[in-house]
Amino acid sequence: MRKNTDQIKLIKLRSIANEIELSMIKAILDENNIPYLIKDHGPGGHMRLIGGVSLFGTDIMVAEADVDRANSLLESIIVD
């Protein structure tokens, strides 16, 4: 079996507890062409498919190469 050396290491950018903050972060990442992956906690992925929201929290994952740029963009609008 051939080893894939083109794998991307994903880093957790933020853990989000509400849909408003999630929408804001997704919009910022989209506007700046930063690819991301949404990872819902527990059964949150199923809840998002059925009801459109997750009550269990969500992680936003970005490529390791993009994490510094994404953090600097988010620091200008979000206070942890």
Question: What would you note in describing this structure?
Answer:
InterPro entries: DUF2007, N-reg_PII-like_a/b. This is DUF2007 domain-containing protein. The model has no long low-confidence stretch (mean pLDDT 80). The radius of gyration is 14 Å and the shape is globular. Strands 1-3-2 form a three-stranded antiparallel β-sheet. With 80 residues, it is α+β, with helices and mostly antiparallel strands. It has a single domain, classed as UreE, C-terminal domain (Alpha-Beta Plaits), CATH 3.30.70.790. Helix content is 38%, strand content 22%.
Structural class: alpha+beta
Per CATH, the superfamily is UreE, C-terminal domain
Largest sheet properties = 3 strands, antiparallel
Q: Terminal Cα separation, in Å? A: 44 Å
Q: What's the count of strands?
A: 3
Enumerate the strands of the largest sheet in spatial order, edge to edge or round the barrel: 1-3-2
Query: How many domain modules?
Result: 1
Share of β-strand residues: 15-25%
Determine and state the CATH class: Alpha Beta
Envelope shape: globular
Query: Count of helices?
Result: 3
* Alpha carbon gyration radius: 14 Å
Mean pLDDT: 80
Percent of residues in helices: 25-40%
CATH topology: Alpha-Beta Plaits
Low-confidence stretches: none
String of helices and strands: EHEHEH
CATH architectural group? 2-Layer Sandwich
InterPro entries: DUF2007, N-reg_PII-like_a/b
Protein name: DUF2007 domain-containing protein
